[in-house]
TrEMBL record:
Belongs to the dynein light chain family. GO terms for biological process: microtubule-based process. GO terms for cellular component: axoneme; dynein complex; microtubule. It is found in: Cytoplasm, Cytoskeleton, Cilium axoneme. Signal peptide: none annotated. The keyword Metal-binding does not apply. The keyword Cytoplasm applies. It holds the Pfam family Dynein_light. This is Dynein light chain. SUPFAM superfamilies: DLC. Consists of at least two heavy chains and a number of intermediate and light chains.
Amino acid sequence: MGETEGKKDEADYKRLQTFPLVRHSDMPEEMRVETMELCVTACEKFSNNNESAAKMIKETMDKKFGSSWHVVIGEGFGFEITHEVKNLLYLYFGGALAVCVWKCS
């Protein structure tokens, strides 16, 4: 019985973590929503390949909002970046997966 309870708890946790949780953003609302949707799509499409997900996000952001976008996806990392004002999004998705998207020229 303990094993089935553990699986149920894990399933509940994953269900709760299917939405993006924004840690920090200074993007305008419309850009933020669009970027969040893009991040979710990329992370779901390439759930086992963070590099491909980051590439998809970067290429799409470069096309939509001009070049010089940078993307980091992973677990357990720290960072310090310089970015253009109103061009940063840092969110969590799927539990421990962190996504940071920013633009700098």
